[in-house]
Each structure stands twice: as C-alpha cells, then as structure tokens.
Automatic annotation (TrEMBL), chain A:
Keywords: Membrane, Nucleotidyltransferase, Transferase, Transmembrane, Transmembrane helix. The chain crosses the membrane at residues 50-80, 92-111, 117-135, 156-175, 181-202, 223-242, 248-270. One of its GO terms (molecular function) is nucleotidyltransferase activity. It comes from the Bacteria. This is Phosphatidate cytidylyltransferase. PANTHER family: PHOSPHATIDATE CYTIDYLYLTRANSFERASE. It comes from Phyllobacterium bourgognense. It holds the Pfam family CTP_transf_1. GO terms for biological process: peptidoglycan-based cell wall biogenesis. GO terms for cellular component: plasma membrane.
TrEMBL record, chain B:
InterPro entries: Plipid/glycerol_acylTrfase. GO terms for biological process: phosphatidic acid biosynthetic process. This is Phospholipid/glycerol acyltransferase domain-containing protein. Pfam families: Acyltransferase. It comes from Phyllobacterium bourgognense. Keywords: Acyltransferase, Transferase. The keyword Ribosomal protein does not apply. Residues 40-162 form the Phospholipid/glycerol acyltransferase domain. GO terms for molecular function: 1-acylglycerol-3-phosphate O-acyltransferase activity. Pathway: Lipid metabolism. The lineage of its organism: Bacteria, Pseudomonadati, Pseudomonadota, Alphaproteobacteria, Hyphomicrobiales. PANTHER family: 1-ACYL-SN-GLYCEROL-3-PHOSPHATE ACYLTRANSFERASE.
Length: 312, 219
C-alpha cells in the first residue's frame, strides 16, 4: 500500500501549497484595508472544502470496499436530493420519490457489495426504468405525466446509476492488479477532479473564447484545452496507481476528462433551464454535491466499461 | 423535584432540528430582516406538519427555545398521544378553531403566551393548504395580534418545498432541499382596517415565494 501513502502525501502537499498561495494572495489584497475580492474569498472557501473532501475520501478509503460504497451511496443521496428538488413533482409521486431514496439507492449499492455484476448493470436501466412509470401510472395522476416520469428516470440514471460506477471499479478483477481497485478509483477521481480544477485555473488565466456562451459563461476553449492536456499529463504521471502504461494512463485520463467536461456542460444546461446557479449549498464555495460530482457522473461509467473491456 | 419537562422539550427540539437538517438541509434566508432575540410573531404558509419544525430549526438556539407554535386544539387533542406530543414535547400553544363549540378564546391564550415572553409561530391560513393555490385567505387572528401587541414584530416567513417533503397524510418524508425565507416586518398602520391589513400581510408573504416571483417575471 505504499502507493496509497504516496498519493495521500502528494495530495496533502498540493493542498498545503494551494492554501499557502491563497493565504498569501488574500493577505496581499487586504493589506491596505481593502475588502477581500469575491474571487479570492471563493478560492479560499473552495480550498477549505477540498481539505474536507480529501479527508472524507481518505477516511472512506481506510475502511476499504465498505467505506467507499457507503461514501458513494451518500454522494448519490445528496446528488439525487439536489436533483429532485429542482424537478416538478406532484403529490401522487410521493411513494415513487421515497422509493428512489429508500429502495433504489440501497439496492444499487448493495448489489455492488455482493458483487452481482449482472444485476448491478441492469437493475436501474431495466427494472427501475419499467417499474417507475408503472407505479406512477397506478397513482392515477396524469398531469404532466411524461415530464415527471422522464425527470425521475434521469435523476436515477445520473445520480445513482452513473455514480455507482465509481465504486464498481472495485469489483473488476484485473490480472496482476488484484486488490488494488481503490487505487484505480483514486486515479479516476484525481484526474477528473484535477481536470476540473485545472480547467478553472486555465480558464481564469487565459479564458477568452466561450465554448457554449448560452449555457455557461465560465467554460472557455482555453480552459478546456489547457485543463484536459494538463490533466492528461497528470494522469500519465499517475500511471503507477493503475494497470496502465504511462501513455495508456494519459489517454484514459484524457477520455475521463473530456467526459467530465460534458458532464459539467449538461449539468449547466439543466441548471440554466431551471434558473439556478448552483445545485445546492452543501460544499462551501463549490455549490452543491452535483456541482462537484457532475463530471464524475459522466466520466465514471465510460471509464469503468473501457477498463472492463480491455483489461479484464 | 427537578423539572424534567423543559429538559425533555429541549432534547426533543434538538433532535427534531437535527432530523430536519439531515433530511432537508434547511437553510434560512434572511431576506428582509436579520436573526434577532427580539420578541416576534413569525407567520408562515402551511402545508405540512413539518412546517413549524423547519421554521424553528432556522432560528437562533435561544430564540428557538422561547418560540412556540400555535396549533389547532381540535386536531392535537383528538387522542392522548397527539396531546402528549403537542403539550409536552413540542410545547405548542393550543387554540380551539371551531368558534361555535369553543370554550376558550384563542386570542386570550395567544396573548397570554406573548405576555410570558414567548415568540409565536402562527399559520394564518388556519389549516394546512391542500389546494393548488400557493396561499389561502388569512384568518383574522393575525390582525387581532398586530392590533393588541404593536410592539411585537410580525415577520412573514415563506417555507419552501415542505409540502413536497411531507404532504398531508404522508408518513415518511422525501428528502428534498428546503429553505425558509424571512421577509421584512409587517406593521399595522393606524388607519388600516382588518381586511386591508390581512391582504397586505398575505401579499407580503406571497412575495417571498420564489415561484411567485418567477411567474410574475414570465407572465
């Protein structure tokens, strides 16, 4: 487990450096009695939240498979709660909504715990897909039926099904890589989240041309390209966490980061449609759980299936 | 003998606030006023049993402790468990809503509670709103309180989403994010009659509803 310790020390080092830089910048800008600019205040709270997130993930990793499954079940819960809050629900949906939280999330993650891959991969897209509209129809309320049913399906697919593919990496048995699934998860999270941070940094420094001005003012081509290239290099440098060679690790990281970018873009489109800026307020400086996890939602299933196809 | 009821109530209030936060992540939005230790009457929209728990969760701990919700005695005295809950754990001010059969004047009971230094939470619609309208007509209790105690601030509080979390008749709450939006204090002006005041107070509450704002902007 030397890799875990190196990774942990590396993260603590990066965060310490980030905190030091942010503290220095804050000190410099308020030295003459000025008010702290909002960008810097936001940067400070973002870094503080990163400390908490890294600590939480590390603790989950200490508990191994069970810890990671519980952590992601909680992430799914928080993400689904933010999502459903923004959708149109009616009184007749009460039981379906309860079922989404009290049945679908626990079952999906339990299937991971017992490593029943066949059921894990079809429980949501087959059984829940058909059961949910059936139960909604039984409730008899047809007002905006299609809209309600589709929104429920989307919520479950994004917040539960897609996200559960992160801990699902633990269930893959890769030759010469047995028992190291946690490292693969660390690789995925580090590159995807690293890409988010690097896109933010490159965007703030060089951002000029917006990718989709109607959807998000903060996503620029400069940020995207700079972020994905640097995060791919980061991925290649982290190859020792994975069963990949360095070029393979770079390619896998690039793929995950591009998917992550699309995840962020789709999440922005949904937020714009609903007229909100953030999904919630759970993570200070970042917004809600989905604001942080949107890239992982899109990256995890693709990453999982490519590893599963080529490496097992 | 040590009084156990206040302890029990405090513990119950803490547990309820914890549960409310865990399920709804409730956040107060102090839009028109700031949290304060001043004696206040909080009036809010009402669609769910969770409403008053959500509202009191948003208050400062000291303020929460002295704030009591006004609730319908006919409902909460219907059986012993409900009565025990309302009286001993939730510390509600029970008033009789049916004016034909009632023995005690609700105004007297509410004014007594104010005299004892309590802040009140009241739901001027008089019952849980089950219609598609965002807010029912207000009963006159709010006017009578404003008239009798002009020194106590009247704060409109819009409770968002609670009707979706725990609708009438539902046993288990669906976890959805909730907010309580606190508006600017509403004062009774000297020349104002009952109807005008109740309309204005109702409008002040309605204007806190983000949905209402949205429909105004689009319509």
């Amino acid at each position: 487990m030397a890799e875990t310790i190196w990774l942990f020390l590396g993260l603590v080092g990066i965060l310490t450096a980030a905190s030091a830089v942010a503290t220095a910048l804050s000190w410099k800008s308020t030295r003459k009695g000025d008010v702290l600019p909002s960008t810097l205040a936001n940067l400070n709270s973002r870094i503080k939240a990163w400390w908490i997130m890294i600590a939480t993930i590390s603790i989950a990793f200490l508990f191994g498979k069970g810890g990671v499954i519980l952590l992601f079940a909680f992430v799914s819960f928080a993400a689904l709660r933010e999502y459903v809050t923004l959708t149109h629900t009616r009184r007749g949906d009460h039981w379906i909504l309860l079922g989404m939280f009290l049945v679908i999330i626990p079952v999906q993650y339990y299937l991971l715990w017992i490593e029943w891959y066949g059921m894990f991969s079809i429980f949501v897209p087959v059984y829940c897909f058909l059961a949910m509209p059936a139960l909604t129809a039984i409730s008899g309320d047809t007002e905006r039926f299609l809209e309600r049913v589709s929104e429920q399906q989307w919520g479950i697919m994004l917040s539960v099904y897609c996200l559960s593919h992160v801990p699902a990496l633990l269930t893959l048995s890769i030759p010469q890589f047995e028992g190291k699934g946690l490292l693969l998860i660390a690789f995925l999270i580090a590159t995807v989240q690293g890409s988010d941070v690097l896109q933010y940094v490159f965007g703030k420094l060089f951002g000029r041309n917006k990718v989709a001005p109607k959807i998000s003012p903060s996503k620029t081509w400069e940020g995207l390209i700079g972020g994905v290239i640097s995060a791919s290099l980061l991925g290649a440098a982290l190859y020792w966490l994975t069963p990949f060679t360095p070029p393979q690790a770079g390619l896998m990281a690039a793929l995950a980061c591009i998917m992550g970018f699309f995840g962020g873009l789709v999440a922005s489109a949904i937020k714009r449609d609903r007229g909100v800026k953030d999904w919630g307020h759970m993570i200070e400086g970042h917004g809600g759980m989905l604001d942080r996890a949107d890239s992982l939602v899109f990256a995890a299933p693709i990453f999982f299936h490519i590893v599963r196809y080529f490496w097992t | 003998m040590i009084e156990t009821k206040p302890l029990l109530r405090r513990a119950a209030a803490m547990v309820l606030a914890g549960v409310a936060r865990a399920i709804t992540g409730v956040r107060p939005i102090w839009q028109g006023c700031a949290p304060s230790k001043r004696q206040r009457i909080y009036y809010a929209n009402h669609a769910s049993h969770g409403d008053f728990i959500l509202l009191s969760t948003c208050l400062l701990p000291e303020e929460r402790e002295r704030t009591r919700a006004v609730a319908g005695a006919d409902y909460w005295r219907k059986n012993r468990i409900r009565h025990l809950l309302a009286r001993d754990l939730l510390n509600t001010v029970l008033v009789e809503r049916n004016w034909v059969e009632r023995e005690q004047d609700p105004m007297v009971i509410m004014l007594d509670a104010l005299k004892d230094g309590h802040s009140l939470i009241i739901f001027p619609e008089g019952t849980r709103n089950m219609t598609d309208d965002p807010l029912l007509r207000f009963r006159s209790g709010l006017y009578n309180l404003a008239f009798a105690r002009p020194d106590v601030e009247l704060i409109p509080c819009w409770i968002e989403n609670m009707s979706r979390v725990l609708p009438k008749g539902a046993l288990l709450p669906v976890p959805l994010l909730c907010r309580v939006i606190f508006g600017a204090p509403v004062e009774l002006t000297p020349a104002e009659d009952r109807h005008a005041f109740l309309d204005r107070a109702r409008q002040a509450l309605l204007e806190l509803d983000p949905e209402h704002q949205r429909s105004l902007n689009h319509g």
